Please model this.
Amino acid sequence: MDTAALAGRLVNHGSASRYWIAYSGGLDSHVLLHQCARLGQQDGRFCFAAVHVHHGLQAQAENWATHCAEVCAELGVPFRLIRVDAKPQPGQSPEEAARNARYRAFEDLLGEGEALLTAQHADDQAETVLLQLLRGAGLAGLAAMPEAMPLGCGVLLRPLLGRSRDALQQYAINHDLHWVEDPSNQATVYDRNFIRQQIMPLLADRWPSVAETLSRTARHCAEAQGQLDRLADDLLLAACDGAAAASTPSVIHLRQWQ
Model:
C-alpha cells in the first residue's frame, strides 16, 4: 500500500485530529508506523504519534520498549510508552488479560476526535473467522474485525485489513526495516497461534487463496449483520411511531373528560 492508498483508507472514515499508531515493535506494526511516517511527511493533514503498551510479561519487554522509542525517534514520530498490569485473573487466559489491559490503555489514551490505528491484516482476519467458527459464532462473530469501530472518545481503524502478511513482510524487506519477534507467537498452546502455525498452512496448501476467501466471508457477514441492524432500527422506529399514533385518541379522550 502506497501513501496515497493509506491516506484514502484513513479519510474514508472521516478526519481525525491525531492518529495514534499502536506500535508493538513487531513486523506488522512497524510496517504501519513506517507508512504513516512517510504519509505524515508528505501530507500535512495527518498528525501521527505512536504508542507502545508495555505488558511486562516477557523478559525482553524493556528492550522492546527501548527499540520502539529509538525507531520512532529515527522516523520523527512522537512516541508514548504506557505500562499496564496484564497479569491474568483466575480463569482468564494470558491472551485475554493482555488484550483487555491493552485496549483499556488505548481507550484512556484517545481524546475526542482522535483515532487509533492497529496493524491487523487479512491473515489475522482469516484466523479470526476460523476462531469464531470454532466457537459457534453467529453473523456478528463471523464478521470478525471491522475496519472501523468506536473506541473510547475516538475511533479504532484497521487500514491494513485488506493486505496479506506476505505483502507486509515484502514491504519490510524492501525498506530494510528491523523488528522484534515475540517468542510467545510461536507457542501453539494459544489458539490463534495454533491456527496460524498448524491449520492455515495446511489449508493454504489445498486452497492457496484461503486467507483472502475467509476475509471476504467476514465482509459478507458484516454486510448482512449491518442490514439486519438497519432493519431492526427501522422496525423499532415504526413500532414506536405506531404506538404513539395508537395512544393519541386515548390521550384526546382523557383530556375531554378533564
